[in-house]
């Protein structure tokens, strides 16, 4: 394993360190990590996007896109404040605990909300549909500020906040070149790239470690894991499995996700089959209407997540595209709906996959959860 520097324009920042196996095109200086100083690996059971290697006096944090095993890894040496253990040359050191963060996504923010550590968030990139009362209060008091949106960040505001680190999503829209002069470590948070609900939720362990709440994070995740897997067992042997369609048309194209995605896994665990379950892709995909209709015209349910301004109904759905009414799930009132204007979906759901699973089980197999009240998704009735 090797470490090399990459520039901000390539992905994020010169403060990232990229570690990967040697390649014929690799020309930068490298540093080999001595394997003998490894003490233990952290217990990361589901997340595939980060690893924690406990070494002598520090923890080597390695982050890599879980959907691309050949992509670059980013390395940081996590050490306790006031200590100066020897670390590999070129690896960015981070002193723990970290007290001032900038978050770029609601998913990142969800980790802080669940850890009750929102006071450590001094900057966020967007307030659209922001529901959390504590964050809103911090913004009203000037303790947390908006730094702009992806592609249009304000370096002066970022500098004025004096963050210790900035959590980023390097494979999204970006705009991180605006930060190349601020000289602040940028840490990729790739929870959104995980393909399983528990994998996404397990990123709270990383935030817990960075904030000095490692024990609390482990306890929170263990509770999520136990509840999720208990629910999953209840649907494991069901003979009847409804088929679920997902997505809508945007700009003339139907946006969906592949059969190896987070959403497909939740449907499977809830006792249903995603209409693209045989598709081997894990990310977002674009399809034409005819392709979707040919595969899902007989689907039992149709999951929709949007931010419709007003009362969403079957008439509102049909008004978006008259062809929607041809789907069986539309005709038989099988639309499962969540409105992000009303629900704190991306602020809370990443840390509540067990609740999301319960919502879908309630729809697909209501007899299994007769007394449960859905939190995010409900059957659209009107």
Automatic annotation (TrEMBL):
GO term, biological process aspect, one: cellular response to iron ion
All copies of domain Fe/B12 periplasmic-binding, residue ranges: 100-368
Signal sequence, start to end: 1-28
Pfam families: Peripla_BP_2
Keywords for this protein: Signal
Domain of life: Bacteria
Annotated PANTHER family: MOLYBDATE-BINDING PROTEIN MOLA, VITAMIN B12-BINDING PROTEIN
Protein name according to UniProt: Fe/B12 periplasmic-binding domain-containing protein
């Amino acid at each position: 394993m090797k470490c090399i520097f990459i520039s901000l324009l390539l992905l994020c920042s010169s403060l990232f360190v990229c570690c990967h196996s040697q390649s014929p095109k690799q020309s930068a200086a490298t540093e080999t990590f001595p394997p003998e100083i490894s003490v233990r690996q952290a217990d990361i059971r589901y997340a595939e996007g980060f690893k924690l290697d406990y070494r002598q006096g520090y923890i080597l944090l390695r982050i890599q896109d879980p959907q691309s095993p050949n992509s670059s890894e980013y390395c940081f040496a996590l050490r306790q404040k006031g200590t100066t253990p020897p670390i590999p040359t070129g690896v960015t050191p981070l002193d723990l605990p970290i007290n001032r963060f900038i978050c770029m996504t609601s998913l990142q923010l969800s980790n802080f909300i669940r850890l009750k550590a929102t006071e450590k968030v001094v900057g966020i990139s967007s307030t659209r549909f922001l529901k959390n009362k504590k964050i809103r209060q911090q913004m009203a008091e000037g303790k947390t500020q908006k730094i702009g949106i992806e592609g249009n960040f304000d370096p002066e505001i970022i500098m004025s906040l004096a963050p210790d680190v900035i959590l980023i999503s390097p494979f999204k829209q970006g705009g991180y070149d605006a930060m190349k002069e601020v000289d602040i470590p940028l840490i990729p948070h790739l929870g959104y790239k995980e393909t399983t609900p528990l994998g996404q939720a397990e990123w709270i362990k990383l935030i817990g470690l960075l904030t000095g709440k490692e024990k609390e994070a482990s306890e929170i995740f263990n509770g999520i894991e136990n509840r999720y897997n208990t629910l999953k067992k209840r649907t494991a042997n069901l003979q009847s499995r409804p088929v679920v369609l997902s997505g809508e048309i945007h700009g003339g194209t139907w946006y969906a996700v592949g059969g190896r995605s987070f959403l497909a896994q939740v449907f499977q665990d809830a006792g249903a089959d995603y209409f693209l379950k045989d598709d081997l892709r894990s990310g977002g995909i674009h399809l034409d209407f005819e392709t979707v209709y040919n595969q899902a015209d007989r689907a039992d349910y149709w999951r929709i997540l949007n931010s419709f301004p007003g009362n969403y109904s079957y008439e509102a759905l049909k008004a978006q595209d008259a062809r929607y009414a041809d789907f069986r799930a539309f005709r038989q009132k099988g639309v499962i709906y969540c409105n992000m204007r009303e629900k704190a979906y991306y602020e809370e759901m990443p840390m509540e996959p067990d609740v999301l699973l319960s919502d879908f089980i309630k729809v697909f197999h209501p007899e299994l959860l007769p007394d449960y009240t859905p939190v995010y998704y409900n059957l659209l009735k009107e």
